[in-house]
Amino acid sequence: MKIAVIGTGYVGLVTGACLAETGADVICVDVNEIKIERLKKGIIPIYEPGLDEIVERNYKGGRLQFSTSLRESVRECSVIFIAVGTPPGEDGSADLRHVLQVAREIGASITGYTIVVTKSTVPVGTSAKVKAAIQLELEQRDAAVEFEVASNPEFLKEGSAIDDFLRPDRIVIGTESDRAREILQKLYHPFVLNGHPLLFMDIPSAELTKYAANSMLATKISFMNDIANLCELLGADVDAVRKGIGSDPRIGTRFIYPGIGYGGSCFPKDVKALIGTARENNYELRILQSVDAVNDDQKHVMFAKIRRHFGGELAGKTIAVWGIAFKPNTDDIREAPALVLIESLLAAGANVQVYDPVAMTEARYVLSENVLFASSALDAVKGAHALALVTEWSEFRLPDWKKMHDLMLNHVVFDGRNIYNPAELQEIGYAYHCIGRMSSVEKLEPEV
Ligand SMILES: NC(=O)c1ccc[n+]([C@@H]2O[C@H](COP(=O)([O-])OP(=O)(O)OC[C@H]3O[C@@H](n4cnc5c(N)ncnc54)[C@H](O)[C@@H]3O)[C@@H](O)[C@H]2O)c1
Ligand SMILES: O=c1ccn([C@@H]2O[C@H](COP(=O)(O)OP(=O)(O)O[C@H]3O[C@H](CO)[C@@H](O)[C@H](O)[C@H]3O)[C@@H](O)[C@H]2O)c(=O)[nH]1
């Protein structure tokens, strides 16, 4: 089966490489010439564990190709995936510019029966727009080419994208015909050998499933962040509460970790987009409005703790920030909570020294030149008055606290992910603040 994947970002490249892994003949297309040139040289444009191996193996095996020409690439393909970005527009709704541009080009190029599958996250009704755009192009060139559209939202997580794609919890496909259903069932058969379901449904339901899934997960996180903030007021420990509620299988243990707000290219934009979709239909999604508002506030919680610790005066203080990526195992810094914290620290007159194991290059594009980019975690804490742990990378989990004690000017740790042991830090002489817990350590008088 010959397949084209349009858009070679986090989703498109993983999709293309994983489909090629099953023996399919895949061509990945992108408008970004530099990206495609680098991919042809074996340079992977993003950090995603395991992606380099799978791309290299399939590229060398001839099953995976790269191109900047959509028109040439899609001609012989029976299935075309659209995996371009759908960033938030000014009003928060999904910007469909790239998706519809691709649809028009597909319409201008296909010559035989084709299934056009929308994999990008798009609002309900987008597949119908894609279909209309392709149809219009076909009519304009007077071509009677049979095609169908389908919706196949992607649920992979950055940092574990390969595993998520190869062993999905489920695959959701919205189709309108048995023919498209049979072809997509065949294509995805190798990925559901684990017994997890391939769920066929109508197209609007498939499109909405994606937003509902992300919104549900974001709701769990904002709910726990709200509870964490209440824990601090009541003298309770959110991690005990988390374990206490998570043991009930109806609630479950996953995605209830409090922190400093969810980030990334999906939850923030998809929650906002779904709120907008509802509003366009005269319906207020009140729960999601609160989820979004709680998340915006949560991104400021760590800054408030740091400012309070230093008696409201941060001018001249040096704060080390560990982690910029929105989560570990990715170089993606879109909507990362670290960016909000760093901006607030700089605005308050603090010096900021940052370190991230893989996101430093991305960070240099967006962070102010006043930020000091450290060469290692230890380098970042040199001369610092405080350490803020933002992203829970593995290499930050067991720091050499004693060595750091000598490097830091003042000894206080702000743990945005609740990964450190307060007792251990107290023994070495650090003050400790985390999320949703008032530990005895935190109640120590601030150091000068
Ligand atoms: N990143 C994730 O974890 C994730 C997971 C599931 C779904 N999604 C959704 O998948 C979609 C893609 O997300 P992403 O993170 O991979 O985006 P991305 O920004 O990493 O990649 C998008 C790519 O599309 C290319 N592109 C734009 N216009 C094009 C065109 N006309 N022709 C060819 N290529 C074009 C861009 O150059 C870019 O390389 C979005 O709708 C997103 O919401 C993302
Ligand atoms: O208990 C938790 C779990 C996650 N997060 C935060 O939530 C954000 C998103 O994390 P995660 O969902 O792991 O990463 P993404 O790669 O953004 O994946 C989400 O967004 C993708 C794009 O739509 C979907 O495909 C995935 O299913 C969905 O999990 C990150 O900032 C995490 O730190 C928490 O604060 N607490």
UniProtKB/TrEMBL annotation:
Pathway stated in the Swiss-Prot or TrEMBL entry: Nucleotide-sugar biosynthesis; UDP-alpha-D-glucuronate biosynthesis; UDP-alpha-D-glucuronate from UDP-alpha-D-glucose: step 1/1
Active site: 266
EC number: 1.1.1.22
UniProt-listed SUPFAM superfamilies: 6-phosphogluconate dehydrogenase C-terminal domain-like, NAD(P)-binding Rossmann-fold domains, UDP-glucose/GDP-mannose dehydrogenase C-terminal domain
Keyword Amino-acid biosynthesis: no
Binding residue positions for NAD(+): 30, 35, 86, 121, 158, 269, 334
Coiled coil region boundaries: none
Any Pfam family matching the protein: UDPG_MGDP_dh_C
Keywords, comma-separated and alphabetical: NAD, Oxidoreductase
Protein name: UDP-glucose 6-dehydrogenase
Organism: Anseongella ginsenosidimutans
